[in-house]
Amino acid sequence: MPRNEKPTANGPAADYARDRMVSRRRFLAGTVSLAGLAATTMMIPRLHAQEVKPPEDPMRVPGALPRPYGDRSPFVKSARVGGAGPGAPHGWGENAPNNFNSWTPLQDLHGIVTPSSLHFERHHNGVPLIDPARHRLLIHGLVNRPMIFSLDELERLPAVSRIAFLECSGNSHDLWLPNAPDFTVQDTHGLTSTSEWTGVKLSTLLEAVGVQRGASWMLAEGSDAAGMDRSVPLTDEVLQEAMICYGQNGEALRPEQGYPLRLFLPGYEGNINVKWLRRLKLGTAPFMTREETSKYTDLMPDGKAYQFSLVMEAKSVITSPSGRQQIHPGFHEIRGLAWSGRGRVTKAEVSVDGGRTWQPARLQEPILPKCHTRFLLPWRWNGQEAVLQSRCTDETGYVQPTRQELVKVRGTKSVFHYNAIQSWGVERDGRVRHIYA
Amino acid sequence: MDGYGTSMRKSLLIGIGTLAIGLAWCVWTAGSAEEGGGYGLGRTATDEEIRAWNIDVSPTGEGLPSGQGTVKQGAQVFAAKCAMCHGPTGTEGPKDRLVGGQGTLTTAKPVKTIGSYWPYATTLWDYIRRAMPFDHPGTLTSDEIYGVTAYVLFLNLIDRSDVASRSGGSRSGPRRKSVFGTGDAGEA
User: Quick check: is A104 in a domain?
Assistant: First the structure.
């Protein structure tokens, strides 16, 4: 008798397990019968309605069977939060139709890798549905031999993998505002994520097409409904590090991250890492696309705009304790993330008194260039008001600035590239708030 | 009709797109001369395949197809296909404001529009072709795009006497001289 028909377990947990078994059996049998669909649709509301209750003793009830594609425990609720540009409300519900961002729940994450399902998103006209069998990459312009590659061909070329962060240059854009809303760290810093990226080196492809003399910029274009495109300077750094990626955290890219193909430029602002990549065109000058002229440019106090500010400078933030959390007196491990688009993080320091004194935090291995680095510091909260801050230093010697220092140079209208020290105020009742200090 | 014309043509946009900014860039010469990298993967793209995808328009005007459109024609296209998002005069929203904002970039509330912030008219043409209308991208004809481009520039520039007095070949986007392209790309 198949296990899923064994009348041994009762109650909601058993129902949950049984539904999953039914679903699995249908899947394995390859049947698309009405009964199979019914079982699947019955299962989904059960999971989403949060009716799952664990058995009194999990050692007394047979557990669930293996399944084709894993999901997290139904008790884990961590999720991205949606939103639009500066000043727009964060959330789903009524906001959803206008959302073009989603923020990573940094407060819930462990270590340095962001689960692919929680990687932040930014789309310019939705996530396209792309048939990998029909997808092509065209490389042309100032090349000896314009070429077209299929996904299969790209996957056959020598592969490289690298763990690195990807941060939207608009991350923390609301922190340019003069007032400090009651934000979580997800709201303030959730447009950064780290993945293991796998693909072929750009240089491998450029060797194949043969770059002509004078080619110094490259247009990268996506096959989404925005035809999103950016100009990439062919610097030594780009030529050494740029990747055309098809893999993320061990599997194919997620659609939201560019399936089946994206450009990845470690350390550079998110927008230039063009998703759903279909075309690379080499030229002698930047192509001056809409995104690099009217959007991803930094307006300075004198009315000029800083263009091609591509590197994400060193930045850190305490993820726990952080905004809108509630803490209690006693032991806490202060935890956070630090990263730099210029290389490795060499130091992370923590202050619990608003920046008057600093203590070095422990950097958790691995400490990789252009990658989230986890820092940790034990702390005993005595119930008094405190202001928690972190600041990092990267291998170039650059030290993350205070908000005051940043605003002095950049004003408050840049929108992009905010990397100042973040302050979390701990109130006497243990409530943690986003503040400017 | 006036100094900068009611008709938008390829030659005019090329003039508008003339670059006035100095951008430094590194020059990279080809590495391995071994064609194909020795892997035997990928194939040569045909001219026809390249033409089908080669849609970008550079500030020099390279990439602009033949065609033309007048401000009047553009106004009709705008009313039918753009105004529901950008407002009847390009200022009302709910989506991006396209018109006005000149003189606000140093104020507490900068208004970044095509008139106040975009440095190149060619970018406007390119972006409309690739991404607009938002719910039906890629559906406008070249003539319609020339018309809408002319109309949006008209809305932004009609009250600028200095623009009206310039000769056709030297027109730029209104902000071209205040965008400077240095940054990391230029330093490398």
Answer: no
CB pairs under 8 A between A and B: 180
Residue from A230, A283, A308, A265 nearest B127 by CA: A230
Per-residue DSSP letter, A292:
I
> What is d(CA A92, CA A337) in angstroms, rounded to the nearest whole number?
26
- The shortest CB-CB distance from A310 to any of B37, B105, B184 is to B184
> Which residue's structure tokens are 């129902």?
A15
Residues A216 and A248 in one domain: yes
Give chain B's domain count: 1
Q: Is B68 helix (H, G, I), strand (E, B) or coil?
A: strand
Which of A60, A89, A108 is at the close of a domain? A60
Q: Is residue A65 part of a domain?
A: no
User: If DSSP codes are grouped into helix, strand and coil, which group holds residue A426?
Assistant: strand
- The β-bridge partners of A326 are A431
Q: How far is A339 from chain B (nearest CA, A)?
A: 18
pLDDT tens profile A55-70: 999 999 999 999 999 9
Residue B166 Cα, gap to closest chain A Cα (Å): 23
Q: Based on the domain organization, do A426 and A375 belong to the same domain? A: yes
Do the domain assignments include residue A370?
yes
Q: Do B55 and A208 touch (CB under 8 A)?
A: no
The distance of A106 to chain B (nearest Cα, Å) reads 29
For residues B60 and B76, the answer to whether their CB atoms sit within 8 Å is no
Domain span at residue B155 reads 65-177
Q: Are residues A137 and A279 in the same domain?
A: yes
Sequential pLDDT tens for chain A (437 residues): 333 333 333 333 433 333 443 343 333 333 333 333 433 433 444 445 557 889 999 999 999 999 999 999 999 999 999 999 888 889 998 889 889 999 999 999 999 999 999 999 999 999 999 999 999 999 999 999 999 999 999 999 999 999 999 999 999 999 999 987 899 999 999 999 999 999 999 999 999 999 999 999 999 999 999 999 999 999 999 999 999 999 999 999 999 999 999 999 999 999 999 999 999 999 999 999 999 999 999 999 999 999 999 999 999 999 999 999 999 999 999 999 999 999 999 999 999 999 999 999 999 999 999 999 999 999 999 999 999 999 999 999 999 999 999 999 999 999 999 999 999 999 999 999 999 99
Check B56 against A287: CB less than 8 A apart. Answer: yes
d(CA A85, CA A292): 17
Would you call A138 an interface residue with chain B, using a CB distance cutoff of 8 Å?
Answer: yes
Looking at the structure, tell me whether residues A369 and A399 fall in a common domain.
Answer: yes
Contacting residues of A for B44, CB less than 8 Å apart: 145-148
For residue A218, the enclosing domain spans 116-306
Report the complex ipTM: 0.86
- Residues A155 and A228 occupy one common structural domain: yes
Compute the CA torsion angle B131, B133, B139, B142 (nearest 10 deg): -80
